[in-house]
């Protein structure tokens, strides 16, 4: 069975199951899948049973869902498609980073493997998407930045943004307007989290939902 032989719904489920644990430790539950897929728990259960019958997930009622090795391989392929398409839409078609998720959701089921590899080549084989999420390689390797941690959990100090979650388009709009994108510098201080001063911009305290969206790594020692 090839990736193209499973339904778009199945492809979406595999991608969501994999993505849910990429930046967290706990596997996703049926309730979590229902929320992410915008459907009901009974519908999720029926779909998971079909995926289990195809050998794509290990599913036991009332327990978290786990991908099989085949399911994980297909999930990573879908993630690669999605993130390369997001990068293409931003870099080549002028989309803003808060606009690309839904477009990529539609396109990822239609494009061929050949087109995906052509896009990757055209973009110079990028390692991250516009939000800082790693783009899996053509062989399925995924490299997260070493030492990355949620901004909400770090100690006082200076940090570099490596990822901004794309789960809330409104947050992405505000982050873009403030220049808080991968590569930007932030200071975590005792008075709350503030953006490091940049020429022509004020420091600005971040709202709780904005802090939760950001992952950072410590800045290196100054030369």
Roughly how much helix do the residues carry, as a percent range?
A: 40-55%
Instruction: Give the number of DSSP strands.
Output: 7
- How many domains? 2
Question: Any idea of the CATH class of the largest domain?
Answer: Mainly Alpha
Silhouette:
globular
Mean pLDDT, all residues? 89
Describe it:
By secondary structure, the protein is α+β, with helices and mostly antiparallel strands. It is 42% helix and 13% strand. It starts with 7 loop residues before the first helix and ends in a 5-residue tail after the last strand. It contains 8 helices and 7 strands. A 5-stranded antiparallel β-sheet has the order 3-7-4-5-6. The protein has a two-stranded antiparallel ribbon with strand order 1-2. The longest helix is centred in the middle third of the chain and has 25 residues, at 69-93. The model has no long low-confidence stretch (mean pLDDT 89). Strand 1 (57-58) and strand 2 form a beta hairpin. It has 2 domains: 1-144, Orthogonal Bundle (Arc Repressor Mutant, subunit A); 149-218, SH3 type barrels (Roll). The radius of gyration is 19 Å and the shape is globular. It has helices at residues 8-20, 30-37, 41-53, 69-93, 100-107, 113-122, 169-178, 208-213, and strands spanning 57-58, 66-67, 149-150, 157-164, 185-189, 192-195, 214-218.
Describe the structure concisely for a colleague.
The chain has 223 residues and is an alpha+beta fold. The protein has helices spanning 8-20, 30-37, 41-53, 69-93, 100-107, 113-122, 169-178, 208-213, and strands spanning 57-58, 66-67, 149-150, 157-164, 185-189, 192-195, 214-218. Strand 5 (185-189) and strand 6 form a beta hairpin.
